[in-house]
Amino acid sequence: MKTEEYFDIVDENDQVIGQETRATVHAQNLLHRAVHILIFNSEGKLLLQKRSALKDLHPHLWVTSCSGHVDAGESYETACAREIHEELGLNPSPPLEPLFKLTPCEESGWEFVWIYRGLHNGPFQFQEEEISKVRFFSISEINDWIQNKPQELTPSFHLIWKKYKEKSL
């Protein structure tokens, strides 16, 4: 049986002001923290994951390569290393590069989110209860996908991809 998850609740400056359960944080839209990781391969393609049917938020939708909440008392960097190992079976080398930080909004799930980038060609060992599949996509495929079938991608992915493209110009 899975133990109850606790997250740090933060204020508008991303300073910890308390702790609460995952269920309470999500039910009350409390500000909290998360990480998203963009894994590119040597051809410049981005790995995306399709969320499993068992996920409580956005099942069956595509999202970044890896993502997860920052647990209570955990740093963004520690959460990043934990999530990439848990979700994809990776111990990234070279280390992941922090890219930018998003402020909380509805699309981000009221999370402060650090976005990281890494390089890996696979293979990946993913948890089927979390992820139904992973696949590399070219930048043009992703842009076309967003244009033609945006409902297949999570709101957080749309937000992250828009900011990533702005930062990459």
Mind explaining what this structure looks like?
The structure is a single chain. By secondary structure, the chain is α+β, with helices and mostly antiparallel strands. The protein has one domain: Alpha-Beta Complex (Nucleoside Triphosphate Pyrophosphohydrolase). The chain is 25% helix and 32% strand. The protein is built from four helices and nine strands, in the order ββαββββαβββαα. Strands 3, 4, 5, 6, 7, 8 and 9 form a seven-stranded mixed β-sheet that branches. It has a two-stranded antiparallel ribbon with strand order 1-2.
Quick take:
By secondary structure, the chain is of the alpha+beta class. Helices cover 25% and strands 32% of the residues. It has one domain (6-168): Nucleoside Triphosphate Pyrophosphohydrolase.
Count of individual domains = 1
Query: What sequence of helices (H) and strands (E) makes up the elements?
Result: EEHEEEEHEEEHH
Q: Give the overall silhouette.
A: globular
Mean pLDDT: 93
Between the first and last Cα atoms, what is the distance in angstroms? 46 Å
For this structure, what is the CATH class?
A: Alpha Beta
CATH level-3 fold name: Nucleoside Triphosphate Pyrophosphohydrolase
C-alpha Rg (nearest Å): 15 Å
- Biggest sheet record: 7 strands, mixed
Q: Give the proportion of residues in helices.
A: 25-40%
CATH homologous superfamily placement: Nucleoside Triphosphate Pyrophosphohydrolase
